[in-house]
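Sample A.
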Amino acid sequence: MPARRRPLRHALVALLAVAAAVAPLAPASAEDGYPARTYTAGAGDDMRRAFEALRPGDTLLLEPGTYDIGYIRPVVARGTSRAPITVKPQVWASPPVLVGGIELKSPDFWSLQRLRVKAAADRAPALHVHGGTGWRVTGGEFWGARDTEAYANVAIDGGGGYPRAFTFSQNCVHDAATTQRAKTDHNIYVKFHGAAGSGGVISQNTIVGHPNGAGIKLGDGGETNAPGPWGVTVSGNTIVDGGRQVLMSHDVRGNTVTGNLLGRSREPFTATDRRTTGLYALMVGGTGNVVGNNYVFGADMALRDPYGKVRVAGDMAVRPDAQLTGRGCSVQPGYWKARYYGRTSTGVYPRW
């Protein structure tokens, strides 16, 4: 269906009128009477109300510019697999910058595309997603925790078997906090309480700068057997410049870490054991976790698994320096063998 092109204020007013006329939160499809509509909003509009007004099949286009959105917790309708709800830039080459933070609960079949979100609320992440099925976050940039002292730039949590079938891919997440907390300032913190059917994919992201934590942490809390995520695939990510690059902890199950470029770890195990690792299995008690075919450099070991709970299925070794070029979101390996891993990976790995 062709997009409806309306003046900005009229578009948002019409969108909010739809919200008042349609009961929220009921799962629906286009066949249930929700035609696909496209609306446009700009930096002066209320993003919480705009998100709450969207219905299955709707697309919200955000004009270029910097938006002071505050920390928003919209109560969102649920999309469907055939009628997802999409938020993306009006001009693909000029993605908007949203300053504040976004917290979404049960965002079934939502798609956030190419959004740049800078955390600005005290101790709050740039993006926090609770539960949901089939949601996608792609092509974006998330940062700001270094200024807000949030535990993560991106947090993914939930319970009761959710989230399910989520995708977080081709994003850049950078500059985690550097607080006095002990090793707990992460770039991506995946802490949902797993159950049968839960899980998703974190792939092809660039994750940089987490000196007091991990690039990706899979696990929740610091207590023995604390519940953590099940069924997460971490694949083809470039994760560099941090304490550890991937951390799994406690009761995590059925997670897979493969094809990642993991480099320049700085956090020693203890005050007396100064060794470092690319991937750390901390007190893992769950089963079915698998790692393999990861390129680790700038660390003393590829995998630290003192309890022997993680199965190695594929190459895991410390390799030559990846000869990184670029900085931040543009970082990439210069060494040709390293290019087979991380965000530049095609899923085919060289023989060693």
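Sample B, a different protein:
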Amino acid sequence: MKLLKLIGVLLDYPDDELWLHREELIAAAADPCLSPQRTAQLTGFVTALMDADPITMQERWVSLFDRGRAMSLLLFEHIHGESRDRGQAMADLMQAYQDNGFVLAVRELPDYLPLVLEYLSLRPLDEARDWLGHTRHIIELLAARAAERESAYALLFELLAEFSGERSNLQTIRRSVAGEARDDTPQALDRVWEEETVRFGARAPDVDCAPPDRLPAGVERVAHKESRA
């Protein structure tokens, strides 16, 4: 599943080293699981990225993903916010990684989407699709928000949603997002880090971000022991 690995690399912060792998990235975009139209679009995305100035693309990435919470690549932030449930979800995910011999060698949180995609690229196809199916509501939300901001990154989220193989809800989400208040303006950035529960921004879309009742394949609840005085 080289496609998931590629999308994870493209969604990650584009450090200078990325430009050393131009030909590899363009070749990887021709994934056999994609339609000719999607292959052309993904190849175009990679080519445009590689043709651009690294500093410009790094600034663009920060502007999209690192200002405000609406476009955060931390999946659990969209589900749990800063609630205690997020800690439990982190523990469950870390345990799943460890059970399958996936060791985190970077300082990223386990729910960081590019990291999740790297893990899924090493797992069986059905399992990877099951995981993405559980996060599809978030991925489609990110796709709609990226498109609303006229960002080329919308394509990557759309490809992930399609990979899951589940019924699309993207059109409904796009209509909701169209009236959503931006959280990356200077005024909004002064307020966005206030404590919130599940939804972000002054007006959240009518999309339920509650996690599915069933956990993705291979993930089990990690019991927490109560501390005693």
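Observation for Sample B: Residues 79 and 209 are 5 Å apart (CA to CA).
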